Amino acid sequence: MRNPAFQQAFSYENVMNFKKVYVLLLSFSFVLQVIAQSVPDIGELLESNDIESSAEGYDEMVNTLLELYASPLNINTADFDSLKRIFFLSDGQIDQILGYRKKYGGFFHVNELLWVPGVGKRDLNNLLPFITTGQRTAQEKLGILKKRTRHELLVKVKTSFPIQEGYKVYSLHDFEKKKDYERKVVSRFQGPPLGTLMKYKMNYAHFLQAGFTLENDAGEGYFTRSQRMGFDFLSAHVCLTGQHLFRRVILGDYRIQWGQGLVAWGGFASGKSDMAVGNEKSARGFSPYTSTDENRFMRGVAMSLDVLPGFSADLFFSRKKTDGNLTVADTLSEEDWLAVSLYESGYHRNQKECDKKHTLKEMAAGVSIGWNTAYFKVGLNGLYYDFSPNLIPGERIYQRYNDTGKGRYLWSLDYKTSWRGIYLFGETAFSDCGALATVNGLRGGGAYLSGCVLYRRYDKRYISHYASGFGEYSNTSNEEGVYCGIDVVPVKNLKVNVYYDWFRHFAPRYLAVITGSGWELLAQADYRHGNFGHQWRYKRECRPEDVKGQESVLRTKNEYRYQMSLKWYKTLEFRTRFSMMQYHKAQQRDLGYMVYQDVICVFPATDLKMQYRVGWFNTDSYQSRIYAYENNVLYGYSFPAFMGEGWRTYLNLSWKPVACLTCYLKAGFTIYPKQGTISSGVSEVDNNKLYDLTFQLRLKI
Predict the structure, then answer these.
(1) Is the dihedral of CA 465, 467, 473, 479 positive or negative?
(2) DSSP per residue over 476-493, as a string?
(3) How far is residue 406's CA from residue 392's CA, in Å, rounded to a whole number?
């Protein structure tokens, strides 16, 4: 990488001439890699960049990156919000790319990104599948149009054994009391121990996108009273994209992303991670819903309009049924006959769970007006939603400000602007009860040092069922905090990320009846030399929590991690990781350990890829549990928590026998030598060994 000070010694004309020669020479060093480039391993890319999220967010990230692989971004025209979709690029790196492009003009070749301060070889390798440069001829555009007219069908089955308690069949003679037998009958699963998923997607260039999703969790029945259409969850959408007034129209299921997430945000939401300078959200407006989460989506119609140059408008209307717990209230008043709370697990395996399905009516509507100029971007957002019957906040002290879902109105104003390399962004929202929520951030820096500061304040009465703003908790309520993050590249091949977040709450929260403040610190260093990579991480969390019979105390967690990786050419990789967790709360002190070894093999001649892991874990309690990402089938998500003492091993395979078909298989095995059973309740397994198996086919035409 060139030193920026040395680059400035050249005149603009000399730089442009020398760039052409340099890029041509540089291209030869990557030519074999570019030719051999196949569909990237999205899961490996996200995990190697330490991006970990909820299952819903992870599924969206995989979908987004696969879309970018099919339709790469033009690095010469993409703006900040577009580049933000490549999740492993930090905000500072995006700023450097845009600044370099503004100063020196367009990129002649993607490898020229190595000239951008702060972008290294590893970053370029990550970016290659998702970006492009230059203008295409009419013949090339026609070929791409044909290529982009495609169909994709995905079928997956998943099971585990031995079978869980919920699948067992009992007779009346197995119980002394009839009510115990009846309780077992009501809790027994109605379907087979086999989870199934079918997804279909159709794309015609950028103009038309359609698809549907059919999904059943293991234990859910087919064509029963609760699943009359065969599958428990059905989702479908049609998305039309234009270039004039109607920029996008979606019928069916969709997501909303507005502002910084204080009013409405569906899907992946950037939060605290090892990318310390990467907290600004980049809203996409409306996007088709393709996930399997049975709650966090809209169903109806959504339109994005280009009203005037620089002015846009989003409008939507949604109406659907959702799950809820209905119980008889302790009153004789007819209108108070039902007490209601949300049921969000998505499981409908037995009669108890099926009774909660689609018991609530959820209606929502909203509008967002945007004004985009070369100097700033402003958006005005309005949302209304209503649940019928209304929700009951709950009787516990920390539930007193919970959402009632009764005719709620919310408004917000969001903005983005910059001045001399300093970037400002934020959003301020108001609810119908007069409560305020605001988040504002500032970031800046150069190639080797960048930082950000973010302040948030969410009133305890501020509630939006669809919000997902930056914060310690995901409900965007009852919180104030200051976040500071720094990314540093002190020497070549070494990157250090540090963030510190202080927060406090205005009212009691779950596990913390007495209000208080806490803080979180993360420091991570990545160093690469040759084929070796090293990663060190330290994370400390301090927050108030209740102690039985005492006032709240400051609970602390310390996480230590070291990982070493070795790449042998491009066909073999080894990863070794050691993790330790310390938990301290009053007189309780728990420890947790985990160590695992990964072996990743790629066989280009047969289009076969193998990922194998063997790991050992030992934790004192649930509080000292350790999470470990696992490779999975495409669109799959696996980020289990390990507790107790045991071993975990799995084998993940992907094979492409023909150009249009890819086969995936994951087989896992977990053993707890000192336990007689695993889990509890209807999920209990009367064994100390657990096997899991997932098989998936993906057909692309």
Answers:
(1) negative
(2) --SEEEEEEEEEE--STT
(3) 10
Q: Locate tokens 């293991």: which residue? A: 218
What are phi and psi for residue 597, nearest 5 degrees? -125, 125
- How far apart are the C-alpha atoms of 600 and 150, rounded to whole Å? 30
pLDDT at residue 219, rounded to an integer: 94
For residue 150, give the H/E element and its range. strand 150-161
CA-based nearest residue to 675, from 632, 645, 631? 645
Q: What percent of the chain has pLDDT over 70?
A: 87
- Nearest-angstrom CA–CA distance, 280 and 259: 10
CB 649 within 8 Å of CB 614: yes
Q: Which residue has the higher pLDDT, 587 or 384?
A: 384
Specify the 3-state DSSP secondary structure of 319: strand
Which stretch of 170-179, 530-539, 611-620 has the lowest confidence by average pLDDT? 170-179
Nearest to 689 by CA among 701, 700, 679, 699: 679
Helix (H/G/I), strand (E/B), else coil: 508: coil
Tokens 């555009």 -> residue: 141
CB atoms within 10 A of CB 158: 19
Give per-residue pLDDT as tens, 287-326.
999 888 898 899 999 999 998 888 999 999 999 999 998 8
pLDDT 10s digits, 652-682: 999 999 989 999 999 999 999 999 999 999 9
- How far apart CA 198 and CA 231 sit, in angstroms, is 10
577's tokens: 């990781």
For the stretch 59-68, contacts whose Cβ atoms lie closer than 8 Å and that sit 24 or more positions apart, written own/partner, are: 59/290, 59/291, 59/292, 59/635, 59/637, 60/255, 60/267, 60/268, 60/291, 61/87, 61/268, 62/634, 62/635, 63/290, 63/291, 63/635, 64/268, 65/40, 65/130, 66/39, 66/42, 68/129, 68/130
| Both structure tokens of 178 | 């009839």
Token pair of 326, please? 């209905």
CA atoms of 234 and 3, how far apart (whole Å):
55
Residue 279 in contact with residue 454, Cβ under 8 Å? yes
Give CA torsion, residues 457, 461, 462, 468, to 10 deg: 80
To the nearest whole number, what is the mean pLDDT of the chain? 85
Give 270's contacts (C-beta < 8 A, 6+ positions apart).
278, 279, 280, 281, 470
DSSP H helix total and E strand total for the chain: 10, 31
The neighbour count for residue 384, using CB atoms within 10 Å, is: 14
Residues ≥6 apart with Cβ < 8 Å to 493: 120, 527, 528, 529
Closest CA to 297 of 286, 307, 305, 306: 286
State the CB neighbour count (10 A cutoff) for residue 615: 21
Cis amide leading into 544 (omega within 30)? no
Q: What is the pLDDT of residues 517-575, one digit of tens each?
A: 999 999 999 999 988 999 999 999 999 998 886 777 899 999 999 999 998 887 899 99
* CA 465 to each of CA 104, 284, 412, 495, 563: distance values in angstroms, whole numbers, following the listed order: 45, 19, 15, 38, 39
Q: Do the strands 246-257 and 285-288 form a parallel or antiparallel pair, or are they unpaired? A: antiparallel
Q: Is the pTM here over 0.85, yes or no?
A: no
- Distance, CA of 629 to CA of 27 (rounded, Å): 34
Q: 425 and 260 in contact (C-beta within 8 Å)?
A: yes
Residue listed under structure tokens 């395979």: 653
Average pLDDT over every residue of 50-65: 58
What is the Cα–Cα distance from 240 to 238, expressed in whole angstroms? 7
